[in-house]
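Reply to dn_fold:

You asked what the input looked like. This is it:
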Amino acid sequence: QVQLVESGGGLVQAGGSLRLSCATSGRTFSSYAMGWFRQAAGKEREFVAAINWSDSSTYYADSVKGRFTISRDNAKNAVWLQMNSLKPEDTAVYYCAAGPDLKFGSWGQGTQVTVSS
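and this is what came back:
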């Protein structure tokens, strides 16, 4: 089992940047895919980005491609989401997730990101 704790959320103006961090614990981190999801008020949770454990291949939602970058450091048991050129529609609670083969079963508590126009 992997435990996940997100940080780095906050309030930022449109066009600004934030870097979300996800600290993990648990022996299986290095063998798990890691992902970021988000849930805006009144909407369903949606996929944002993911990174595989074996070859660090990355995947992005079309809405964030070219603006967000996911990265990980297995030695530090950490994963990050660099968010640039933020838009008001990026406002949401962002969740870190982990799981084998991109099947995410472990979740953090979430961190709020608010982008003002």
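The longest strand covers residues 18-25.
Hope that clears it up.
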